[in-house]
Amino acid sequence: MNIVKYDMNKKILQKLHKLIPDDGYYNTYINELKLYKMSERTSMYNVMFENWILFTFQGKKEMKLNQVSLEYTNENYLVASSTLPIECETFASKEKPFFGMVISFDLNIIYQLLDEISIEEPKNKKQSSIGTFSDDITEEIEDILYRIIKIADKKEDSEILGKSLIKELLYRVLKGKNSHFLHKLLNKSSNEAKISRSLKLIHNDFGKSFSIEDLAKKEEMSVASFHNHFKKITAYTPYQYIKKIRLNKAENLISQKNISVNEAAVTVGYETASQFSKEFKKYFGYPPKEAKASLKEYSL
């Protein structure tokens, strides 16, 4: 890290120490932005990424998307441009807590930026077809992050400047050398756009019984092509993906909404609570009745 980036990271950390004193997720006056702090290392756990850009300013995260390994630190950021079930491990301590930022984004803003502004698709030959990627934090991006954090606890500033800062950040992300997947989404007939629409459908109607044939037909794809591109983008087969979406949704319902195990099982599409409990325990490592929020949620 060069001196300029080191100084900026130090300024950001000083601000975060004041903003978020305790471990937990912090809602801000910018609707798209959450900040969070963790003071203990975690073992690998399951989490759902949903059209997010993730930054860390201290500590690091290691993730697995099926057999694909990902990592981000204060040198790079992670973009999840699809709804993806990911295994995640956080490295942190009381002396050096993990400070992170999650920015959710609307794909419509991505479409608008790509359509209105002349942003060329990166020419990186090592491009990946997977629906998530990491990229380097530039000085321009770090400057935007600092400006975002400076106003995150100020209501009026956030209302006036928040959306323009988020848009500026997305612009810089689109200019990143690994942002091929986001560019391909602009072509509504691309395989990436087709699978992205299918993921959104599954995500929104997770309790529905889906037919792979119907999903493929809806996007005018053969079953074989749909299956192949689906796995390239998500690292899972359609059925594996649907199961993980349902289990993650159920975990959220039980831990965050205090819904009973039986009700959660029915809501996410299981016919029996016993089958649901068996698959839940296999996936998370504990029975559904023991599900609880990992971090408290606060507001700045």
From TrEMBL:
Keyword entries, A-Z: DNA-binding, Transcription, Transcription regulation
Cytoplasm listed as a keyword: no
Stretches assigned to the HTH araC/xylS-type domain: 196-294
InterPro entries: Homeodomain-like_sf, HTH_AraC, HTH_AraC-typ_CS, Tscrpt_reg_AraC-type_HTH, Tscrpt_reg_HTH_AraC_N
Keyword NADP: no
PROSITE patterns reported for this sequence: HTH_ARAC_FAMILY_1, HTH_ARAC_FAMILY_2
GO molecular function: DNA-binding transcription factor activity; sequence-specific DNA binding
Top-level division of the source organism's lineage: Bacteria
UniProt name for this protein: Transcriptional regulator, AraC family
Source organism (scientific name): Arcobacter nitrofigilis (strain ATCC 33309 / DSM 7299 / CCUG 15893 / LMG 7604 / NCTC 12251 / CI)
Lineage: Bacteria, Pseudomonadati, Campylobacterota, Epsilonproteobacteria, Campylobacterales
